[in-house]
Specification:
TIM Barrel, 41% helix, globular, alpha/beta, 15% strand
Length: 293
Amino acid sequence: MNVPQRIQITEVGPRDGLQMEKRVLPTRIKVDLIGGLVEAGVSSIQVGAFVHPRKIPQMADTDALAELLPVREHVHYSALTLNLKGVERACRTSIAWIEVSLSASDAHGRRNAGLSLPEAIQEAGAMVTLAARAKRRLRASIQCAFGYTDPLDVGVEQVVRMTRFLVDQGIDLLVLADTAGMATPQTLTDVLAAVIPQAGTVPVGLHLHDTRGFGALNVRAALQMGIIHFDTALGGLGGCPFLAGASGNIATESTVRLIHGLGIDTGIDAAKVAVWSRRLNRYFGRALPAGTQ
């Protein structure tokens, strides 16, 4: 397998991992969790989302949390936004990386952000402009890039058009999200083969879910395509609150071990991450989906 020598993992547990949990994790525990992830060698962490607190109560403290994060020279923090108001909130904090996220599925976008696809694209342009003016680094993610309720209901052409638009806006990283867990190694390879040439010099990353058990296989397929940016969540936490059946993200621990087993470095100690997965097990009173050993 022709693979890279080092992989960049972005830990999304504090955001995507927690957003489905009914019991809200207090801010002080989130700060400890993020500090523990930093000590485990995680250098990129998505700490929260600037979204409506009534819709996603777990993210209500993101503004305050952003000012309590441990400062390390080699660590950067990001937060998700779905609309212009979210970017405005993010720009009032010290968060260095802002994620502008929109869905390739019109139906999903209406449920998730209350925007049709044309509206979301127009909004994304304004979001990127505002974040760039505030001198923030920009992640842009395309949700449901591999399908919404069916692998064929979002065409590759749509993802390619959105890629061109976002790249033209001046983003720093493009992330394709398998929000519904529809991707297989073949469909993932097909989409990446179409998207990567259109992204030009902008790196392409993946946000994979393990809904149908293809997580590890999709990681291997992506590595063969030269992908070096992956989103993961400790313990396999996560899912989309506006998408029934969208189970957790690929687990940080098992993904790191898979990548290390292929002779590729991540800089992350999976055992130290697992310590925090077990603590969350106890806090939420249930076993997390994966990766706690």
